[in-house]
Amino acid sequence: MVAPPDNEVLWARALHVRHHGSPALTGVSLGVREGEILAVGGPRGSGKTTLLRCLSGQLLAQEGEVGFAGTALHALGASARERLRRDRFGWIDPTPVLVPELNAWENAALLLMLRGVGRRRARATALEWLDRLDVGRCARSRPYALSQAERQRVAVARALAPAPAVIFADEPTAPLHRADRAQVLRTLTAAARSHGMTVVLATHDTDTAAFADRTVSLLDGRRVDTVHLPPVDEPAGPTGSAGPAEREGRAACSLSA
Ligand SMILES: Nc1ncnc2c1ncn2[C@@H]1O[C@H](COP(=O)(O)OP(=O)(O)OP(=O)(O)O)[C@@H](O)[C@H]1O
User: Fold this and answer.
1) CA angle 66-33-220, nearest 5°?
2) Could you tell me if the CB of 43 is within 6 A of ligand 1?
3) What are the structural domain ranges in the chain?
4) Tens digits of per-residue pLDDT, 32-70?
5) What pLDDT is stored for residue 119 in this prediction?
6) What is the pTM of this model?
């Protein structure tokens, strides 16, 4: 196994994944620095979810290696990978999957309690995150009484509450209206920065990718380019800084490489 550069907390080397014989990833390599927010961009079906599942140890590639903080994930057994996921990783799905019998704060506290945090402390932490995600008022509501967007905010709070080392977010704003997306992404990225979390964010949307420090793009299961996006609040202007249209254009270029 080739040692990764010192500042990479998570890396993949030459991943090949086939789903029932058809290729989903072909020779994909990448590294993620500690505390970095990395977007994995690309159109639908390009392999983003498959890559996140490999990086998080949910899926073993048929070929290739994955490492996290000095541990070779591809060499671990299923239960060791499960423990690692529970203790160090967080996951946000494109649609919220909550436990219907638990209210919003209990759902948000679930991973903390699984990690052995006492109920009172877990509740206080869950309520803080629900407030930050603007759904504090829903704390006692069951999922059926919440809108899809509120449920997704609860799911984001649940992933952030234990402050995992790495958050994998697969199209995390898919169920949100455009106006809500920026607020949830701002909360997610601000939380990651303030707690030193690393984020790997799959998205086919350039506006979402603009919240990341860097974008790695996939096309038909292959890496096609890396785009360095400027900060999202960088003003457009005559000084040469990029406006939104130019930023979108740059990101789109990566797919044509
Ligand atoms: N469980 C599976 N069984 C069979 N084929 C699969 C499976 N999961 C993914 N694929 C196929 O692998 C390829 C990559 O899929 P993947 O979901 O990783 O892409 P994606 O970029 O995340 O797409 P989307 O944005 O639509 O989720 C696609 O062709 C998809 O149809």
Assistant:
1) 55
2) no
3) 8-96+159-256
4) 999 999 999 999 999 999 999 999 999 999 999 999 998
5) 96
6) 0.84
User: CA-CA distances (angstroms) from residue 180 to 42, 185, 203?
Assistant: 22, 9, 16
Q: Which fold has domain 8-96+159-256?
A: Rossmann fold (3.40.50)
Question: 163-172 pLDDT, tens per residue?
Answer: 999 999 999 9
- Mutation choice for ligand 1 from 17, 18, 26, 46, CB with most ligand atoms inside 8 A: 46
CB of 21 sitting under 6 A from ligand 1: no
| pLDDT over 90 (residue 174) | no
Could you give the 3-state DSSP secondary structure of residue 39? strand
**Residue 61: what residue type?**
A
Contact 204 CB / ligand 1 (< 6 Å) = yes
Protein residue with least CA distance to atom 24, ligand 1: 44
